[in-house]
Amino acid sequence: MTYIADILLEFFSPLSKEKVWVMSENDNYTKRVRDWVVVKEAVRQIKFDLDTNASTWQNLFMTDKMWHPSLMNSKIVERSGKRGAHWHEEEHPPETAPMDCVRALAIYAITRPNKALGFGYATGQDFQPDNLYTSAIGSFSIYTTLDKFDNNTNTATMNFWMFNAMTKRSFGTKRSADFKLCGMKSQYMWWNWVEVVDWNSGIMRSTMGWR
């Protein structure tokens, strides 16, 4: 299980190191992310794109089973986007500005006094509010591919990879100056989950025409 305090502790530590965090659909953080209204709306839009551009998805966005997140491709994705996937980007969702994260982090720090860096250790039992998880993300991208496209059952298996880079630059130059003793090395976060969509169940419109 991944807790936001784990990531923030690594980011703010004086000995901070670049790290890739890969979270499956059963991970604590992924469950919180999928319940975020901003992500729910993004997924709805992605499904609608599949609905209206099925042939494009079949030709260009089939899953590459060899691909997996790494430190190297995380840096590439941050700059240019993951190729071979449908790319949906969310810029500065509400309540994800650097100060929103700082406020949520301050609340967490108060609940964990006398611990490392004032933030405490992430045990899974600390009070880590939902807005701390979401405000720490800020802008993000979702890269979606098709694991399977079944003409017989009229279903498609969609593979979602949501990506965010927590960097000194994204945290804000002015705010970063307040943490000059902190390492603030980039933390690359990937959340992954799979959904099977079937328009017969009402998830997709009946105009897909996949038969």
Q: Any overview of this molecule?
A:
With 211 residues, the chain is an alpha+beta fold. Helix content is 37%, strand content 21%. The protein is built from 9 helices and 5 strands; from the N terminus they run αβααααβααββααβ. The protein has a 5-stranded mixed sheet, with helices on both faces. Strand 3 (140-150) and strand 4 (155-166) form a beta hairpin.
- The tally of strands reads 5
Distance between the termini: 40 Å
Mean pLDDT: 80
| Shape category | elongated
Structural class: alpha+beta
| Sheet with most strands: strand arrangement | 1-5-4-3-2
The low-pLDDT segments are 116-120, 205-211
Strand coverage percent: 15-25%
Q: What is the helical fraction, as a range of percent? A: 25-40%
User: What is the N-to-C order of secondary-structure elements (H for helix, E for strand)?
Assistant: HEHHHHEHHEEHHE
Note the total helix count: 9
Computed over alpha carbons, the radius of gyration is 19 Å
Major sheet summary line:
5 strands, mixed
Topology:
Blueprint: H1 4-12, E1 19-23, H2 28-34, H3 37-52, H4 54-60, H5 71-80, E2 86-90, H6 98-111, H7 130-135, E3 140-150, E4 155-166, H8 168-171, H9 173-177, E5 187-198
Parallel strand pairs: 1-5
Antiparallel strand pairs: 2-3, 3-4, 4-5
